[in-house]
Amino acid sequence: MPTEPNSLQGIHDEVIHCFKCPRLVDWREQVAREKRAAFADQTYWGRPVPGFGDPKARVLVIGLAPAAHGGNRTGRVFTGDRSGDWLFRAMHRASFANKPISTDIHDGLELIGAYVAAVVRCAPPKNKPTPEERDKCLPYLERELALFADLRVIVCLGTFALDGVARLLNLRPKPTFAHGKEIDLPDGRTILCTFHPSQQNTFTGRLTEEMLDSVFTRAAVLAGRTEV
């Protein structure tokens, strides 16, 4: 039976077969061929990386794009890199994940009331998608958003994620970014902002585990998760 296109599985199937952006296609495939020495014996995914999580999510977490040797290697968003280590530890502590590690697609990780995606679904050179690449990819996120009937919170990991969401939701004036900032939407949902858990932020102390925990604790409250 064909997959319903307007379903999470349908979007998943469409994403992983996307070739809309030639620059990103070339880069993701080049990285998958050349590999990093530490992963030389592994077969890289080398394709667009779909969203991942609970179909009944009340919290949607949005990043920038897959990491070249993280999601682009493992095939799952925020999996196999240090950003993912930070993210899923925090989500586990806030009871949004069943375990605090995310190493590969067979590690048993499950999300509870949460879904994780990215504005751009392919690893970009220098981690910098172009505005055109962003706009070609945003319809996937738009379709995912429409499927989460109980969504209460959108967690934006960094400025790029917030800009993408603002563009998608046509927020005017465009909101400015600040860690811990809350943006109330007219429909009752809330955007929460946090610094991206990239090594650039975590190694320098710009983002601490306590800061990230505070955002997901707040997300749990806004989502009605009384057990946190």
Would you kindly provide a written description of the structure presented here, covering whatever features stand out?
By secondary structure, the protein is of the alpha/beta class. It has a single domain (8-222), classed as Uracil-DNA glycosylase-like domain (Uracil-DNA Glycosylase, subunit E, 3-Layer(aba) Sandwich), CATH 3.40.470.10. Helix content is 36%, strand content 11%. The chain has 8 helices and 6 strands. It has helices spanning 8-16, 22-34, 71-74, 82-93, 131-147, 159-168, 199-202, 209-222; strands at 52-53, 59-63, 114-118, 153-157, 182-184, 190-194. A hairpin with a 5-residue loop joins strand 5 and strand 6 (190-194). Helix 4 packs across helix 8 (209-222).
* Strand numbers in spatial order across the main sheet: 1-3-2-4-6-5
Tell how many strands the DSSP assignment holds: 6
For the record, the CATH class is Alpha Beta
Q: What oligomerization state is this entry in?
A: single chain
Described by the principal axes of the CA atoms, the overall outline is globular
- Counting structural domains, the number is 1
Instruction: Round the mean pLDDT to the nearest integer and report it.
Output: 96
Quote the beta fraction: 5-15%
Helix content: 25-40%
- Let me know the CATH homologous superfamily: Uracil-DNA glycosylase-like domain
Q: How many separate helices?
A: 8
Query: In terms of structural class, how would the helical and strand content be classed?
Result: alpha/beta
N-to-C SSE string, H for helix and E for strand:
HHEEHHEHEHEEHH
Main sheet?
6 strands, mixed
Q: Span from first to last CA?
A: 40 Å
What fold name stands as the CATH topology? Answer: Uracil-DNA Glycosylase, subunit E
The CATH architecture name reads: 3-Layer(aba) Sandwich
C-alpha-based Rg, rounded: 16 Å
Low-confidence stretches: none
